[in-house]
Design goal:
681 residues; alpha+beta; Alpha-Beta Plaits; Ribosomal Protein S5, domain 2; 9-stranded mixed β-sheet; 5-stranded antiparallel β-sheet; 20 strands; 35% helix; 14% strand; globular; binds adenosine-5'-triphosphate; binds (R)-mevalonate; transferase
């Protein structure tokens, strides 16, 4: 699909609104006029355009779509021939469902950020965030065989789905992608794909006193080597253990409105989820999902999962498919396998199993997926998206469908891999949220900051990276009031249905706020001084007021606002879905000890009322990988085992053990998919 490129005169307002709303492109649209006059009034009140602000204005010219990555036709991808490999020899188009799935979007999600960033510091004690020590995996499987009866049931379109016997089901053997083949030829260890590394590592060191006999092709080998190799092969895991990680996010402007086709600005936050993937010996055919933070620990027998159903030509989704809705039949096929999991967390397990079955095969390696997160759960900071990005990245790496980031990974391929991770993280978000916009998983995948808009859910979103996103003085507050994103999103939908005109205007107003903020935030001449911060702060306050009117605030959030407003230290807004969870305040520059004292007083008051205060760093890296999960110099690599990961104490312990700050980035530390050369360790 070709992205609509709009050519407009590069004036301040026109350029800045390009990505915000199609309405803005129409110079006569009321929303465009409103925002223009707002912004003009602001700049008229500033210094003349020859002063420092002229630089600010000039920088706005840089807001354009020109950096968007062009769309890519999937047929040109090295692994586009996947479908033709199925057992029943069906043609490639037969196994792709939906015309749209055959296209890659080219959405630009990769970012350019500083290599490391300080972890978010909790101000209060680590209350309530202690982590479990290792628990024994429970092997619980549905006793009934795979339910095939639902295959005969009518689907939503009224047709009777086909029955797929195991024999007729295609066995999809994934071909080596081009990058994999290239990388195998390359001696550089950091450029190997997951699968190629597995091939080189899978033969263990061998020593024997047996006489050497000539083997095939004249090569020497011993008999016991042949015997022990088959034994060792069974006992050896197929792949080394590895880890992936993805950040939390803060929505600065536009939450909820973004679900209704408006734009939002969001940035990655320095809190992260970490997923450890431990591979089991080949003769073990189980997969375990251990979400340690929520005490979810479940094991499935790989071969008894409904592979035939997921791999059937009508249902099969491929790595490069952009799936924009969940398949009810597939969900139903999964339900017996999810029954043993408590209701509250079933959606998180669904997110895993759905992607596991779509992206894997009966032959997927046996593994334990263990997740721990430093992100408060259900608090508006995108904890669910961070988890689904980790799951998506891990499953793609495991199947060899993406390669690890390295200096040799050219920019287009990096963007393509990020897109795959993001698209499948969105599928996980659909399992957890129901109706996500996709902004959370997009930021958690690409990191730094984005302007995001999804007008048409059947099409890829428009994403613009905010290259110049500034370092902002923010204070994050967690009200500790739990809530569910899915419910709040549904509430706004029903309010809009009851009051379409009024709610429509409020959503337009939020869109205007985002448009104005965009001009300040994506500007290399932005100065976090009083005048620019005041402007941003006012927009924060206006956006919060509109969210209150949409009914997504909470008395505790209003209490935070009251305390911060009362002290005069900044401007406050809820972030994420609201209904509790977190707020953030843009802080005024602190001028001397009196201001400092006010801030300390605010923090104390909030702590007395049971709320946690964080100092946040925005704009960090997106999804990253630690392959293998080990630390130290090449000659003394120490594996980071699942047990060590589970035993790490609290968020600080996790950060100290596996955080990018402690392990570094580059070949021996965390690697991030970025569109620039990673730093070598
Ligand atoms: N650490 C975690 N371990 C396992 N599951 C998690 C974890 N964090 C989040 N989840 C899943 O995500 C759900 C919370 O998602 P929800 O969207 O309600 O909150 P959020 O993503 O933190 O907030 P928002 O969507 O407003 O940013 C949990 O119920 C759980 O299913
Ligand atoms: C409330 C919402 O806008 C943000 C949640 O972080 C929902 C979404 O965009 O999916």
């Amino acid at each position: 699909m070709t992205r609509e490129e709009v050519s407009m005169p590069s004036s301040l307002h026109e350029d800045s609104f390009k990505m915000v709303d199609k309405d803005f492109l129409d110079v006569s649209s009321p929303s465009r006029k409103r925002a223009e006059s707002e912004v003009s009034r602001y700049y008229d009140a500033q210094e003349p355009v020859t002063g420092p602000d002229s630089e600010l204005l000039a920088g706005v010219d840089s807001l354009s779509l020109s950096q968007q990555v062009p769309d890519t036709d999937v047929s040109s991808l090295p692994n586009a021939n996947l479908n033709s490999n199925n057992a029943n020899g069906s043609s490639s188009s037969a196994s792709i469902v939906g015309g749209e799935s055959s296209k890659a979007t080219g959405g630009s999600v990769a970012t350019s950020v500083q290599p490391t960033f300080p972890p978010l510091q909790r101000r209060d004690s680590d209350r309530g965030r202690g982590r479990e020590l290792p628990r024994k995996s429970s092997l619980s499987m549905p006793s009934a065989p795979i339910p095939f009866q639902h295959h005969h049931r009518k689907n939503s379109s009224g047709s009777v789905p086909r029955f797929y016997s195991a024999a007729a089901a295609p066995t999809i053997r994934q071909p080596l992608s081009q990058e994999f083949r290239n990388d195998r030829a390359s001696p550089a260890p950091e450029s190997t794909s997951v699968a190629s590394e597995h091939l080189t590592n899978s033969i263990p060191p061998f020593t024997s006193n047996e006489p050497i006999r000539p083997g095939l092709n004249g090569r020497n080998r011993s008999l016991s080597r042949t015997r022990s190799l088959s034994y060792i092969k069974r006992m050896e895991p197929e792949l080394p253990d590895f880890m992936v990680s993805a950040p939390a996010k803060v929505i600065m402007y536009g939450e909820h409105a973004v679900v209704h086709g408006k734009a939002a600005i969001a940035a990655a936050l320095s809190l992260r989820s970490y997923l450890h993937v431990h591979h089991l010996p080949r003769d073990n055919r189980t997969v375990t999902l251990h979400f340690a933070d929520i005490n979810l620990n479940h094991t499935w027998d790989i071969e008894s999962l409904p592979w035939d159903y997921f791999n059937s030509p009508a249902k099969k989704r491929l790595h490069f498919d952009a799936v924009t809705s969940l398949d009810d039949d597939l969900l139903e096929a999964l339900s017996p396998f999810l029954e043993p999991i408590i209701n509250k967390y079933r959606s998180a397990a669904t997110a895993f199993l759905y992607a596991y079955l779509c992206l894997g095969s009966k032959h997927s390696p046996a593994a334990i997926f263990t997740l721990r997160s430093t992100i408060p759960i259900g608090a508006g900071l995108g904890s669910s998206a961070s988890v689904t990005v980790c799951l998506s990245a891990a499953l793609h790496l495991q199947s060899g469908m993406i390669v690890r980031p390295s200096a040799k990974l050219f920019e287009e391929e990096c963007t393509r891999q990020l897109k795959r991770i993001n698209d499948w993280a969105f599928v996980g978000e659909m399992c957890i949220h129901g109706n996500p916009s996709g902004v959370d998983n997009t930021v958690a995948t690409g990191g730094k900051a984005v302007l995001f808009r999804r007008g048409d859910y059947s099409k890829p979103p428009e994403v613009k990276r905010l290259e110049h996103f500034p370092e902002l003085p923010l204070m994050l507050v967690n009200t500790n009031q739990s809530r569910r994103t899915a419910e709040l999103v549904a509430n706004v939908h029903s309010l809009r249905n009851s009051h379409p005109t009024t709610c429509g205007l409020m959503l337009d107003a939020i869109d205007n706020v985002t448009a104005e903020a965009m001009m300040l935030l994506d500007n290399k001449h932005f100065r976090p001084d009083d005048s620019h911060l005041t402007r941003l702060g006012e927009l924060v306050r206006i956006n919060h007021g509109l969210l209150v009117s949409l009914g997504v605030s909470h008395p505790k959030l209003e209490r935070v606002r009251q305390i911060v407003d009362g002290s005069g230290i900044g401007w406050t807004k809820l972030t994420g879905a609201g209904g509790g969870g977190c707020s953030f305040s843009v802080l005024r520059p602190l001028c001397g000890p009196a201001d400092e004292a006010k801030k300390v007083k605010v923090e104390e008051t909030l702590a007395e009322e049971g709320m946690l205060t964080y100092e946040a760093t925005l704009g960090g890296d997106g999804v990253g990988v630690l392959w293998p999960s080990a630390s130290g110099k090449p000659e003394e690599r120490t594996p980071i085992t699942r047990e060590m990961f589970l035993a790490a104490e609290g968020s600080e312990g996790v950060e100290a053990l596996v955080g990018a700050k402690s392990l570094g980035t580059g070949r021996l530390g965390w690697g991030f998919w970025r569109e620039w050369l990673p730093e070598e360790a």
